[in-house]
Amino acid sequence: MNGDTAYSEETERFRVASVEFSHLSIETGHFYMKDLRNGHDAIRAQFRQVAQLVDLHTALTKSEFGTSARISTCFLIDDYFDPNTDPAEILGKILGIADECGLRIDYLAREAGCWETPTYVDGQQTGQQLQLAEMVRSWMVPEPLQDTTGRRPPDVASGWLCNGRRSSDRDLAEAMKVVEYRPSEELGRREHSVFLDVEMWNTQIGEDGEEHTRWSCPFLAAIWQLLRLGMVRHEGRAVVQPQPRGNEWPESWWEMPAVVQLNPKAAPFAAYRALSILPQNYLTIEHGVRTILEHVRIDEEVLTQTVKRGAAEQITIPQETAQRLSHYFIDEVIRRRSGVPVDGAHYAR
Amino acid sequence: MPDDAVGPPGSALAVLGEIHTCLLPSSAVLDTPAIVELLSGVQPGSTITSRERPVPLVISPSRIEGVDCYLIPVSGRRIHVIGTVASHAVVTGGRVLQSSSQTRVMRSQESSRQPWSHYLSRPGTIDAISRLGTEPARRLADGHLGSSGPQQLDLTSITQRMSTFIRVDPELDQNMPFHAGTTRLRWAIEVDCDENTVPRFSFRLDNSETLRSVRLTVADRDIAAAQRFCEDLALHDWLLTAIGQAANRFGPHTQAADTVLNQLAPVLDQLVPLWMPGAHTPPGLRRPWSDLEADPGFTRQWTARVGQLRDRMTTATLQVLHTKIPSSDLW
């Protein structure tokens, strides 16, 4: 064979768009929409703590990767569960308080953008929505129990995901025979189980009488973390393309891009590492998020590309997505400033 | 050979697979964009690979599913494995559908189950948790081609599901221009830790109609090429089987001549251009093809079958003409 002859075709090779990576992405707190509608003090108290933590983690990252380390910050708006709010009012409040607290927010994202995300070509919205949650659902690979040979199809339809084997109650209901109770168990545990069963979605009948899927907060948050880690492509194309901020906010959330770039000089949105600084009541949600991420199969080409990119910067990127994710759960101990009352706090006057 | 003398950690001991080949259930040959659309549901979001030359070939990305079961080596104790099986679909010439599943058997670094993310980060591999004994690669490869049991890895069902997933797509009209059965090809690779090993190969018809077995010994670097070789071989074996079935169905004097013409024309039109043994086999695995051409002589058999069907077509054409053209007495 002639060693100089090589035939190839363009479509033969995988074409996966590369995305830019920061060293660290920091999620700067989170609120339910109802908290955003209410007073300012809770937001201010959280943002003050977050601002200090951002400074701390920025310093840590620079000491690890050098002073030119790329660090971006982001904030996720809960517009999926409470869409009927005014973006201008809510964003004016959040960004105003963040500014006042010295908290820099580089990117603003919408949680509903993790469900369906507007697509762009050359910065222009195409009017098409990518069904992101539906796509990530198809990437879920349930963990097999013992004696899973492949004979039966995997059970993914229920909308629930657990980290092990459910108790025998379910078997009893199915088989109607009395067997000794067997508790739930975690698979891959060291000795004792911490069993978790996460609801990823359910099916609801809408006002139009049609069935539709209602995605859970942990499932959408898992997609959010995948986006921050640069692990999502659609047919090779990057899914998140942060769009510049317009002159004014639209009247409804769905008219906004999934991710808005507030700071034109920001480091890339996606990062090798993602840190979420969150109130502590999000611990269970994030446990669910991690469990979901441990069952999501990432496209090998995307993963390989990321690992290579890291290696070019002398950084080892683990294959397992959740190992690139860390959390900081803030407590609610607040130092009162002298003479400044705290909203809703019951203290002796 | 002692248990620990087979390959470095992280290399596969054996690769086990199965391929089901059938006619795409559609009345027309589909073009590449239609096939790309058809295969896009296998793993939404991932890219599809296609080639136009020498014959259009579209390969879906792989989908994986988890297994926790046993492998039964040809001798010795059964081996507990945990991990995933990868399956994909291949459409050749817009006409032939293959579903193909495989998994690489790895030596586990741990003797107990790992968190699921460990297995997901290495899709299409299974870790052997049990002790492997001597010559595990050979015994596992031979065992896969042997009998099956209830707790044993069931690649047939997994491969069948992938095939069904594609076949029931509403874009396919389910009208096939001619009848052709499904063939199953089981394959097993024994991975030789000698990187310079020359591929060794055997092919067996277990059941003349539907089941075939392929046994290969290759170096680790040739595994992907060997998988592709098995798919290429399965396709050509199916083509031979399908054309053989057609030849049997349309033997002399069995059908009315115009029925023969209507049914044989699409067989010849649509299947003959697909015969390109080794066209989609990577260079490292082309030698088994030349061996197959020597014995049993794949292309010889194909050419003979095609010739037989063309003769039958000619005869049928003459019969039809004879009944339609007025007799020469009238001239």
Based on helices, strands and strand pairing, what is the structural class of chain B?
alpha+beta
Largest sheet of chain A: 7 strands, mixed
Uncertain spans of chain A: 344-349
Please estimate the helix content of chain A.
25-40%
User: How does the helix and strand content of chain A classify structurally?
Assistant: alpha/beta
Largest interface: A-B, 49 and 43 residues
Question: Which quaternary structure do these chains form?
Answer: heterodimer
How many domains comprise the coordinates of chain B? 2
Main beta sheet strand tally, sense and closure of chain B: 10 strands, mixed
Q: How confident overall, as mean pLDDT of chain A? A: 88
End-to-end Cα distance of chain B: 86 Å
The total count of helices of chain A amounts to: 8
Radius of gyration of chain A from CA coordinates: 23 Å
Order of helices and strands of chain B: EHEEEEEHEHHEEEHHHH
Q: Into which percent range does the helicity of residues of chain B fall?
A: 25-40%
Mean pLDDT of chain B: 87
What would your notes on this structure say?
- Chain A has a domain at 19-136 and 215-330.
- Helices cover 27% and strands 21% of the residues of chain A.
- Chain A contains 8 helices and 17 strands.
- In chain A, helix 2 (41-65) packs across helix 3 (87-100) and helix 6 (217-228) crosses helix 7 (283-293).
- The termini of chain A are far apart.
- The relative contact order of chain A is 0.17.
- Chain B has 331 residues and is of the alpha+beta class.
- Chain B has 2 domains: 3-240, no CATH class; 241-324.
- Chain B is 34% helix and 25% strand.
- In chain B, strands 1, 2, 3, 4, 5, 6, 7, 8, 9 and 10 form a 10-stranded mixed beta sheet that branches.
- Classes of the chains: A alpha/beta (349), B alpha+beta (331).
- Chains A and B meet through strand 12 and helix 8 of A and strand 2, strand 4, strand 5, helix 2 and helix 4 of B.
